[in-house]
């Protein structure tokens, strides 16, 4: 998340929308709950939805010129937004092109659905993104999180990543310049990053890719609560352990705080139901951490990203409707 030196503290409640370079900047109306798979989150001060690079650069410049902090959101499938919303601009990324550069090499817009890409590549006979079929995020979110499953991860097949910096410059970073880890990418620490705009993947031919993908999807359907609202695994797996197993062995399946609940099907998936708040979910996460630590002496670490409403205790958040 880019945080300029000043945050918005003065909210102009009269200006509901502004238009700039065919971008509609919506004030105070957009609820983050609509942008998150958990369905949690209050209103953001500014909201903009974009579908190409020019619009993205305009949005970033607009935020910079007005000292508005901003965050890029894909499908919101790994974010816990705040009940108080976001004191800044939420940029919804819908840059969705797909280019077949050469056989097995795909250059893809960062707003493209990662699961769709995974299915397409396997259907075309290429291996490396079988796992992506079950991940309901965007290509940008997958690169940022280094999403993975079943022994595969996004970084394995990245050839290069195109980004826009906070001062609106474009850069292409080759895989050798990027150091990834388990659910870790260099983008999470990159101070001058505004957004990942495109990713080029290099895959290898395989006649069995499709079959492998179907096996992975079938396993997922059996073991994950896909019909309920979640953000996938809440915690990273500690080295040598499965976070889900630890939570289950601590007797926490079905454990609940308000509208937040540990799934009965997969203990590392936390389900939101009814009018679940971010406070319920945070409390559940903290209690589960505490109980697992007491029982096993293992400190779980979140895989999900917290998006705080503001970066100062004095910030002025638009009222929850
Ligand atoms: C049912 C379910 C199953 C899941 N299974 C898996 C799984 O098997 N493996 C796995 O790893 N994850 C899994 N997830 C979690 C999630 O889908 C992935 O982490 C996904 O990659 C997040 O993508 P997103 O577009 O939703 O990112 P968001 O949730 O929108 O954002 C996540 C973070 O990435 C940043 N970000 C997003 N897009 C960009 C961009 N273009 N440029 C810069 N930063 C960006 C955001 O600012 C935020 O910090 C699952 C989630 C669900 C709901």
Features:
single chain, 321 residues, alpha+beta, Uridine Diphospho-n-acetylenolpyruvylglucosamine Reductase, domain 2, Uridine Diphospho-n-acetylenolpyruvylglucosamine Reductase, domain 3, Uridine Diphospho-n-acetylenolpyruvylglucosamine Reductase, domain 1, five-stranded mixed beta sheet, 19 strands, 25% strand, binds flavin-adenine dinucleotide
Summarize the SSE layout with pairings.
Elements: E1 17-20, E2 23-27, E3 44-50, H1 53-65, E4 70-73, E5 79-80, E6 86-93, E7 98-102, E8 105-109, H2 114-123, E9 126-127, H3 139-145, E10 148-149, E11 152-153, E12 158-165, E13 170-174, E14 193-202, E15 204-205, H4 209-223, H5 243-249, E16 256-257, E17 260-262, E18 270-272, H6 278-296, E19 305-306
Parallel strand pairs: 3-6, 4-6, 5-19
Antiparallel strand pairs: 1-2, 2-3, 7-8, 8-14, 9-15, 10-11, 12-13, 12-14, 16-17, 17-18
This protein binds flavin-adenine dinucleotide.
